[in-house]
Amino acid sequence: MTIGLFDSGLGGLTIYESVAQRIPHVPIAYLGDNENAPYGVRDADDIFRLTCSGVERLWDVGCCLVILACNTASAVALKRIQESWLPPDKRVLGVFVPMIEVLTERRWGDHSPPKEVKIKNVALFATPATVASRAFQRELASRAIGVDVEAQPCGGLVDAIEDDDYILAEALVHSHVEALLRRMPCPEAAVLACTHYPLFQAAFQDALGPNVKCISQANLVADSLADYLNRHPDMLGTSSASGFFTTGDARSVSLKAVRILRRKVEFESV
Ligand code: DGL
Fold first, then answer.
1. Do 227 and 210 form a contact (C-beta atoms < 8 A)?
2. Alpha helix segments (H runs only) across 23-68
3. pLDDT per residue over 247-264, tens digit each?
């Protein structure tokens, strides 16, 4: 039994940590497409093609269930994957819906019509491709009415994190938050809809101020996955492969991963 986690690069490790803590008995195969990161500046066809190829590599190591631990792939490619590409014995899930269920006070499987919810003003920080897809607004509108979403494409932030330039990353967080607050001065909640951004959650919180609640995507995804596996234990499959895989240079990716996980892991090139 094993599950696959896929991201364009290292950001998905923030999801990996929460999932590994939540379901420690389940082996995880993690794949970062570091060779082709960032995805957030690519067009939809490119993101679809690269995501499918990453998912196929995780099937090759024995996963039946792959989580796109990448908002860009979830926003841009997941619907198309589920509707037109996925074989019947495999599953691919994204990281968007668990977050939206919490914002809209819904439980999984609640398909009742959209209703009014407590939260009215949401700040969304995401990659340019995720913002352009409007997937967040689409998923939200199918569950809630009267919620105003202001989206900020955080150009450059993923590159700075992947390049290990944490000073630039922090400066970019501040300028993107300021740009958003000029358009929506008082959001109630902020959604960090890119798996790289929680690494700078403190900087986001600092720039947003103490009255804005940052939604933690990783824990919500881990809870939702544990719930899914209780309902679908068959999706764990029979393989017990686990490990860290990259399409990039294993040595340099392993070094960068230490900064995120705060422990040594060995990536293997695929
Ligand atoms: N960390 C990914 C996300 O959640 C991808 C960012 C990128 O590759 O641009 O969107």
1. no
2. 44-60
3. 999 999 999 999 889 999
Q: How many Å lie between the centroid of ligand 1 and the Cα of residue 12? A: 8
Residue 177 is encoded by which pair of tokens? 């938050």
pLDDT tens, residue by residue, 166-215: 999 999 999 999 999 999 999 999 999 999 999 999 999 999 999 999 98
Query: Of the candidates 98, 77, 110, which has an alpha carbon nearest to the alpha carbon of residue 19?
Result: 98
- Cα–Cα nearest to 69, from 16, 108, 133, 125: 16
40 lines ligand 1 (CB under 6 A): yes
pTM above threshold 0.90: yes
Whether 113 and 125 have beta carbons less than 8 Å apart is answered as no
Pocket test for ligand 1, best of 10, 74, 158, 176 (most atoms within 8 A of CB): 158
Compute the distance between CA of residue 138 and CA of residue 19 in angstroms, rounded to an integer.
26
Q: What's the rounded Cα separation, in Å, for the pair 270 and 268?
A: 6
Phi/psi for 111 (5° steps) reads: -105, 25
Atom of ligand 1 lying closest to residue 40 CA: 9
Q: Is the CB of 153 within 6 Å of ligand 1?
A: no
* Side-chain-facing half-sphere of 15: CA atoms under 13 Å: 39
